[in-house]
Amino acid sequence: MITAEELLTEIREAPAPEVEEKDEKDPAKVKQRVPPSRGLCRRCGQNKPINRLMLCYACWVKDELEKSGWREGQPHPDWCRCEGLKDHVRRADGN
């Protein structure tokens, strides 16, 4: 049987466990991930240019309008500044 003194000397003489040094990376050097610019829209499922929300432009406009109470099939409100959609024709601001 080991006495308490022998155990203490054994612990003191034991080599210290090696502490792994973590490589702390400089935030400026960390590779930045870019969100996809093309892919399947999560609303309509078509392969179009998409934004960070994974929505194509047309679906993003509909999503923003629905937040204010607009429903599919209604005319777009005057404050909507969307361009290129068949539902909303923008009138020229000039000549």
Write down the Rg. 31 Å
Elements, N to C (H/E): HEEH
Strand content: 5-15%
Count all strands and give the number. 2
- Structural class by helix and strand composition: alpha+beta
Q: What is the first-to-last residue Cα distance?
A: 102 Å
**Spans where pLDDT lies below 50 across 5 or more residues:** none
Average pLDDT value? Answer: 79
Share in helix: 10-25%
Give the overall form: rod-shaped
Helix run count: 2
Overview of this protein structure:
The chain is built from 2 helices and 2 strands, in the order αββα. By secondary structure, it is α+β, with helices and mostly antiparallel strands. The protein has a domain at 36-70. Strand 1 and strand 2 (47-49) form a beta hairpin. The protein has a two-stranded antiparallel sheet.
Topology:
Elements: H1 4-13, E1 38-40, E2 47-49, H2 57-67
Task: Write a brief caption for the model.
By secondary structure, this protein is of the alpha+beta class. The protein has helices spanning 4-13, 57-67, and strands spanning 38-40, 47-49.
Task: Describe the structure using short key phrases.
single chain; 95 residues; two-stranded antiparallel sheet; alpha+beta; 2 strands
